[in-house]
Structure formats: C-alpha cells, structure tokens
Design a protein that fits this description.
two-stranded parallel ribbon
C-alpha cells in the first residue's frame, strides 16, 4: 500500500511539473501568437452557440474600443500591477454597491482567466483563484499592458458565440474593428457583464443605458496621460 502511495505521489508531482512547464511555454508563446482556442470558446462550440472569431492586431483595433474597455472595465489598468487592491478590498467588504467600472476582477485577471483557465462560479471559482493569480502576474511581467489589452479584446465573449472585437464589429455594425465609432465601441463593450443576456442587436435596455455611461467615462478619461499613452502606443515587436 505504501509503495502504491509513493508511486502515486511521484506521478502526481510529475504531472504538475509538466503542466507547469507546458503552461509557461504556452504563456510565453502567446506574447507573439494569438491563442488557437480557449476553454470558453471550445465550450461555445460544444454547447451549440458556435464560434465567430477573427483575430486582429493592436493597430487594427480602434482607439475608441480600447478607451471604452478601459472606461467600463478597468480605469486604473495603465497604472496597477494586474490587481486593483482597493476594489478587491471593497468587493470583499461588500462596499462595491453598483459594480460599475469598479469590479474586483480587472482586465489582466479576466484575460488570464479567458486564455488559460475556465469560467464558472461556486466551488470552481475558488479553485481557479490560485492559478488565476499566477497567470495574471506572469502576463503582466511577460506580455505587458498593450499585449494584455490586445488579447483581451480579441478573446472576450461579445455576444452568443461571438468572440473578439472584430467578429463583434462585423456582426453588429458590418464594419472592421478599426472603423468603429465612439458610440459603437461603447455599445459593444457595454454587453460584457453578460453578453448572452445584454444584447447589442437588438439593443437591450442595459446596453442602451450603460453605453451612455461608458461614453461619459470615455470623455473623462481621454485626457489622462497614462491611458492616452497606452491606447496610442505602437505594438511591441
């Protein structure tokens, strides 16, 4: 029995070591190559939602889209280290009353979850937190802010079976992501809390309301030096 336990533990250690090494290599590759498919996207295919996706580069995404995402999801993205600790404390204390623009899970965390991990609440959410912390810190160190935002906008679900800003732009407005107006960008980003429920076309009441809020936030943030420098930066080589 003890021999079986010893073999089992050695096998388990090898498995976790190989998983760690392979995930690190994959993370490193994704600095230059878009993820072939994510667990969430694979789930959409299996569930019958389909998969509309067309990856585009940083300079093929309108600055309106980048600013809308920061305004709605993570206004301190250009400054924090992957975690907005103030919002995290408010979330844990139950002080984040409205959950608008101040959610504890920020763009770096959402990107780590979308690319390397899985969705879901309950027990699986808590199991996911440790690897989510690890992947969030690693992409901050290795990818940098521009790459994180680029992959986020290419991989996030923006409608039932619609992944990424290019597929969303083509589906909703029949134009490429680089040509989206401020209003159109805000409407697409407004659906992100739950894109299956908060529809862009037909425009749900939530998207109508929140897109107006996002546009006001965009106006407030567009002169911020850190944000302006980020959204107008050239992609890293």
């Amino acid at each position: 029995m003890s021999n079986f336990k010893s073999v089992f533990l050695r096998t388990l250690k090898k498995f976790f070591f190989l998983a760690f090494i392979s995930s690190f290599i994959y993370l490193l590759m994704c600095k230059w190559v878009m993820p072939p498919i994510t667990i969430t996207q694979a789930g959409a295919l299996i569930s019958g939602d389909g998969l509309k996706r067309d990856y585009v580069s940083w300079n093929q995404i309108s600055s309106h889209v980048k600013l809308a995402a920061l305004a709605a999801e993570d206004q301190l993205f250009a400054e924090h280290d992957g975690f907005d600790w103030t919002s995290l404390r408010k979330s844990l204390d139950g002080n984040n009353k409205h959950g608008i623009g101040s959610a504890a899970s920020k763009i770096s965390q959402q990107t780590a979850k979308n690319v390397f991990l899985w969705q879901g609440d309950g027990l699986t959410k808590y199991i996911r937190k440790i690897p989510e912390f690890y992947f969030t810190k690693m992409i901050e160190w290795i990818w940098g802010k521009e790459r994180i935002l680029e992959i986020y906008l290419n991989c996030i679900e923006m409608g039932k079976g619609i992944y990424g800003i290019e597929a969303a732009a083509q589906t909703y407005f029949k134009k490429p992501a680089n040509d989206l107006s401020k209003m159109e960008a805000a409407q697409i980003i407004a659906c992100l809390p739950n894109p299956k429920i908060y529809t862009v076309k037909p425009k749900s009441k939530f998207v109508s309301w929140k897109s107006s809020w996002i546009q006001r936030q965009m106006t407030n943030l567009q002169s911020d030096d850190a944000i302006k420098s980020l959204i107008q930066s050239e992609p890293e080589k």
